[in-house]
From TrEMBL:
Signal peptide location: none
Protein family according to the UniProt entry: Belongs to the UDP-glycosyltransferase family.
Pfam families in UniProt: UDPGT
Cited PANTHER family: FLAVONOL 3-O-GLUCOSYLTRANSFERASE UGT76E12-RELATED (PTHR11926:SF1494), GLUCOSYL/GLUCURONOSYL TRANSFERASES (PTHR11926)
Transmembrane segments: none
InterPro entries: UDP_glucos_trans
Keywords annotated in UniProt: Glycosyltransferase, Transferase
Protein name: Uncharacterized protein
């Protein structure tokens, strides 16, 4: 029961402003969060960069505002991401603050005030900008809780001189971070060590930030890490993920999805297809492409392979695949530039996912009960891969793909062998537990707590 005065107050204060980082793996969870909060009665404005903007027509129920940030219209500089993220944080501060001030004004006029700003952890300038216009803010963390903890550990290990700036290739376990080895730490080899340390300090800001935190994870997957985080921090945390499973949401793809692969999947036997995708940023060289291709072909399993434009360092990659490969594979393989991934993973024909273990892909695979072959490329992906193979035990980590024999053997282990069958059973069980957590377990409760907090602002 709510007193009429209170209800009236809320009706006036129910717009939320979301600030995503302009990369696919970050835009998606932010829009999914928007859909969840919209389904709970909030109005949503997405305040975004001119660079790599979300596709507003997919979300007619949201308002989209593009800030004049002067970020040049370029391709995502995948070889220099950290520098680019810090550049975004510098460039966006003033224009985002101006936009936000106008929105506050408009909210008053429309009698629909803004309750708070929710920003991606990498858009850390947003907290000060919200504060400036006297709005509370909440952070959305789009990686796993264990990644957050391992980033903090890097700062500590570097200060102790245990870890050099180039990271480590050591197989030894990191004390206190089981099951992570030194080589799994999300150390970046890109840019200078100073830029990387600054990056971690900025996004993991815990002692200086007072923003509560939304996590795209939950207790079923990461209870010990979440407990550790809550112990270390004074701000409240809300693990409400996997976000894409909470409320129905439109596609948030920045690239057009090729739906022809669904027709191809319809013709395949249940649980037989290996789905292969390395996400929106990772790339491989032509040697890796060839070894992957022949490993897949020699395994005789049908496969659906996403080769994103620009993801192979040789622009003529399709020529590399013609030398006998297409004939060898025939109807057994389907290659597309971009797939409707969530739908693919939900398809009964898909029996395994060869993934780079980006956090979104990992969560999507877990939510559909699909076991994985993990081939992490950089950053948090190594942490996720280790959790898949060692904690949830729903996948096999491929430590070296430059060998077609190993690729073939690993595919057979997952798709045919007894070992793979056990993984599939565990994956189905994990899927059920995650579903329960969303339906009436810990994620559900955290979401209610979050809504209560927003309404109390
Ligand atoms: C980036 C980082 O690389 C990742 O490690 C981090 O956790 C999030 O940000 P990305 O590499 O793109 O993300 O991977 P991922 O997090 O898996 O996100 C990719 C998204 O693109 C997924 O939601 C996936 O469903 C979607 N996708 C991918 C498609 O819709 N179609 C495809 O063909 C491939």
């Amino acid at each position: 029961y709510m007193a009429p005065g209170k209800e009236e107050q809320w009706r006036r204060r129910c717009r939320l402003v979301l600030i995503p980082l302009p990369f696919q793996g970050h835009i998606s969870p932010m829009l999914q969060l928007g859909s969840i909060l919209h389904s709970k009665g909030f109005s949503i404005t997405v305040l975004h960069t001119t660079f790599n903007p979300p596709i507003s027509s997919d979300y007619p129920e949201f308002r989209f505002v593009s800030a004049p940030d002067n970020l040049s219209d370029q391709a995502v500089p995948t070889d220099n991401l950290l520098f680019f993220i810090s550049h975004i944080n510098v460039k966006c501060r003033v224009p985002f603050q101006e936009c936000l001030a106008k929105m506050v004004e408009q909210g008053r006029e429309e009698k629909e005030e803004i309750a708070c700003v929710i920003y991606d952890e990498c858009m850390h300038f947003s907290e000060a900008v919200a504060e400036h216009v006297k709005l509370p803010s909440i952070v959305l963390r789009t990686t796993s809780a264990s990644t957050y903890i391992s980033r903090n550990a890097i700062v500590r290990l570097k200060a102790d001189g245990v870890l050099t700036s180039q990271g480590s290739t050591s197989q030894e376990l990191v004390p206190g971070l089981y099951p992570l080895r030194f080589k799994d730490l999300p150390v970046s080899k890109i840019g200078t060590p100073e830029i990387f340390l600054q990056f971690i300090t900025d996004i993991n800001k815990t002692r200086t930030s007072s923003s509560p935190v939304i996590w795209n994870t939950n207790d079923v997957l990461e209870l010990p890490s979440l407990q550790e985080i809550q112990k270390q921090n004074h701000v409240r945390i809300f693990p409400i993920g996997p976000l894409h499973g909470v409320a129905p949401t439109s596609s948030s793809s920045l690239i057009k999805e090729d739906r022809s692969c669904i027709t191809w999947l319809d013709k395949q036997i249940e649980n037989s297809v290996v789905y292969v995708s390395l996400g929106s940023l990772a790339s491989i060289d032509k040697k890796e492409l060839a070894e992957m291709a022949w490993g897949l072909a020699n395994s005789n399993q049908p496969f659906l392979w996403v080769i994103r434009l620009g993801s192979v360092d040789d622009l003529e990659w399709n020529k590399l695949l013609t030398e006998g490969f297409i004939e060898a594979v025939g109807e057994n393989g389907c290659i597309v530039k971009w797939a409707p991934q969530k739908e693919v993973l939900a398809h009964g024909a898909v029996g395994g996912f060869w993934t780079h273990c980006g956090w979104n892909s990992t969560l999507e695979s877990i939510s559909e009960g699909v076991p994985m072959i993990c081939k992490p490329c950089f950053g948090d992906q190594r942490v996720n891969a280790r959790y898949v193979s060692r904690v949830w035990k729903t996948g096999i980590q491929l430590e070296n793909i430059c060998d077609r024999g190993l690729v073939e053997k690993t595919i057979k282990r997952l798709m045919v062998d007894e070992e793979g069958k056990k993984m599939r059973l565990r994956a189905k069980y994990l899927k059920e537990r995650v579903e329960i957590s969303i339906r009436d377990g810990s994620s559900y409760n955290s979401l209610n707590d979050l809504i209560e907090l927003i309404r109390s602002f």
